[in-house]
Amino acid sequence: MVQLNLPKNSKIKKGNYFKDKSGAKNIKKVNVYRWDPSTEENPRIDTYEVDIDNCPSKVLDVLNKIKNEIDPTLAYRRSCAHGVCGSCAMNMGGKNGLACTTPHAEIKGDIDIYPLPHLKVKRDLIGDLDGLYKQYQSIEPWLKSNSKSEVTEIYQSKEDRAKLDGAYECIMCACCSTSCPSYWWNGDKYLGPAVLLQAYRWIVDSRDEERKSRLKKVADELKLYRCHTILNCTSACPKGLNPAKAIAEIKKMLATANV
Amino acid sequence: MENKNPLSPHLQIYRWHISSLVSIAHRITGIINFVALIFICIWVFLLFSGETNYNLIDHFLKSIFGKFIILGLIWSFSFQILSEIRHLILDMGYGFEPKMTKISGLLVIFGSFFLTVTIFMVGKNLF
Fold first, then answer.
1. Is the whole-model pTM more than 0.90?
2. A189 part of contact set with chain B, CB < 8 Å
3. How many CA atoms lie within 13 A of B9 on its CB side?
4. Is the CB of A10 less than 8 angstroms away from the CB of B97?
5. Which of A80, A161, B62, B105 has the fewest Cβ atoms within 10 Å of its own Cβ atom?
6. CATH assignment of A130-256?
7. Are A135 and A195 in contact (CB under 8 A)?
8. What are the residues facing A32 on neighbouring strands?
9. Residue B6: which of A9, A181, A230 has the nearest Cβ?
């Protein structure tokens, strides 16, 4: 059964308020989800007053500023800061995205920052993505070509290569999967947009010889057809990809091809 | 071992988009229509079994509450039909660009109200 409310241990409490001490003129309030695994307490929302005039343009810069200047206990994942690694995926202003590519000026009013939705929280803004990685593994995301020699090159026409555009760019940040209500309610069985986009990427790869068995594998009431075209995934993707369309293409292949 | 870590907030914080709004409304109207069709079947069945039944239902449907129900059902059926057409187009693989999903979603929402008014007026012989 779908549980719309948060479980008891996940209810959010009001947290600490960090007043600006620098005497800044232009202040933006930043509400950040906090949870410390070393205590038995519920998660809380801490509010920081940030001197936004002396802060670079992205949400990640705001978080760095908080961590460096206000509260060093804040924990979040980040690495490249250029929208390539996918580490800093989180929920900002009610929408999933990469903190390093989301300008804080785009968020009106207070900036609300939460971890990616409907994940087990490891600490503060860090969600547990183990389930998603296991599902990714389950679609066997590598080239399978048994008949062709392993030493010769496999040629691919320009047209066939173009089919991978819009699929291979995925950085597996999980913004799409964790924006999907269907994935929230059935995340243990439904593969979710990120993994299905990758499944699609290998299904349409002309060099791959296991197309049929790949299709057969995802052709499942729960794995694939839990997609109800809610389209949160496409609007969340920070790389501008379209997982919803990829899923629709898989459905179409299954409906038309004799698998 | 059971994971006792808290669950991050989801429905509570995620902003609504037009597409997600249309999707949930599609489900809700679907359930309403399902129940409504059962009642319409019962209604037809009752009509067969006598005039007193007819008068009773007629009386109910002409009350303000009855009219509200009728209008609500017309809207719910209108919405379902338009949204279903949108889904058919999506299932054919078209209209997945974020801009298009927004436009088609808005068309469904406004179209459903337009259709409601139109059907109601046709029913009232206002055309």
1. yes
2. no
3. 24
4. no
5. B62
6. 1.10.1060.10
7. yes
8. A46, A113
9. A9
- Scanning every residue of chain B, which has its alpha carbon at the shortest distance from the alpha carbon of A179? B14
Write down the domain spans for chain A: 8-127, 130-256
Looking at residue B106, its amino acid is L
- Residues 78..117 of B with a Cβ closer than 8 Å to A: which? 87, 90-93, 96-98, 101
**Residue A168 CA: distances (Å) to CA of A157, A180, A203, A205, A249:** 16, 21, 12, 10, 15
Q: Which residues pair with A126 in a beta bridge?
A: A123
**A249 contacts on B by Cβ (under 8 Å):** 93
Nearest CA to A180 out of B11, B102, B12 is that of B11
A127 touches chain B (CB under 8 A): yes
Tokens 């109800």 correspond to what residue?
A228
Architecture of domain A8-127: Roll (3.10)
ipTM given for this complex: 0.91
Interface residue of A204, A226, A230, A233 to substitute, partner B, most B CBs within 10 Å: A230
Give the DSSP H or E segment for A45.
Answer: strand A44-51
For the domain spanning B18-123, the CATH number is 1.20.1300.10
Q: Which of A95, A118, A245 sits opposite B7 (nearest CB)?
A: A118
Does A13 reach chain B within 8 Å, measured CB to CB?
no
Q: Is A200 on the interface with B (CB under 8 A)?
A: no
